[in-house]
Q: What sequence folds into this?
């Protein structure tokens, strides 16, 4: 094998490695996008349930002693 052939073979191997690395990076980018979308959905759910909890507390309120005592007096 001549030096030119050996150099060509090494170049081909490096190009194959480069393609595999680029494919792997594309996979990582796709996974990062998917995870970012999933995180955004979870953040929306957290915000929704936080606001729902606040709204329920506001509507129901914490029963005070007077409302607790009056609930015992009701028939």
A:
């Amino acid at each position: 094998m001549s030096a030119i052939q050996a150099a060509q073979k090494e170049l081909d191997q490096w190009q194959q490695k480069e393609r595999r690395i680029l494919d792997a990076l594309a996979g990582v980018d796709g996974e990062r996008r998917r995870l970012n979308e999933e995180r955004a959905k979870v953040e929306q759910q957290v915000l929704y349930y936080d606001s729902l909890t606040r709204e329920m507390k506001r509507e129901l309120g914490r029963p005070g002693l007077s409302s607790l005592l009056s609930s015992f007096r009701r028939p």
In short: The longest helix spans residues 3-60. The chain has a mean pLDDT of 87. Residues 34 and 75 are 57 Å apart (CA to CA).
